[in-house]
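Students often ask why we bother encoding 3D structure as a string. The short answer is that it lets us treat folding as translation between two languages. Here is a chain of 254 residues written in the first language.
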Amino acid sequence: MALIKDEAFVLRRLDFSETSQVLAIFTRDHGQQSVLFKGAKRSTKTRASIGIDLLEKGDAVFTMRAGKEDRMATLTDWRQRDGFRHLRNALGALYSAEYAADVTLSLTERHDAHPPLFESLDSLFNDLAQPPYLDSIARFQWELLTHVGMRPEMRHCAACGKDTVDDSVLFFSSHQGGALCRDCEPHAIEKRRLSRATADVLIDTKTGRLGRAFMLLDYHLREIIGRPPRLSKMLQSALRDELKQMVDKRLLDR
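And here it is in the second language, the structure alphabet:
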């Protein structure tokens, strides 16, 4: 039986019994893991326990039986590093973090490590300490898609390879893998209108105004996952004012 130690984020939590929890954790060096923490909520005479909280970061110790890596591991110890209390101070911050947790679990596999993605998640949770939130969550969307190899092609037509930088009319197809020129767009069944401004933001992500691309990246994630990300609508509602300021309604991607 292997004993594994790693840093981890708690991305999903389920009460298993009166005293135990089942957790979906995302670790730095061992990827996504499903673990059972027995006695997580058991209190003692000197200490009351409510278990491990959602979205916190800590040092995890868990056991895994050799040859049974597909089974649920057992969490034997947890030491909290950061509870990210600021996430509970604003709905925009909380929904952004929960949205990120859901899409991370949906686009990663068990035991498939992504240390740079772990760092991106850590950066996001810290960046959410204060508004605005839209640029931060959109940057995480982009980095997540990059780390898992699903980043859309924006500089060239995903169908024919033509340079799209000078095109004033563009479309986007998630199934095709990115931007489409006017010549290729009629042949795509799944597509939506793409504004020049949004395309430019994703071509040069160093501008820092990635919030403009949030809705497009949310759409791309939905098509990849096969369902809307959890909290998507609630997050859009919480960030409504930021979206209004960021997106020109005449150029809104459709």
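Translate back mentally: The CA atoms of residues 13 and 23 lie 5 Å apart. Keep this in mind for the problem set.
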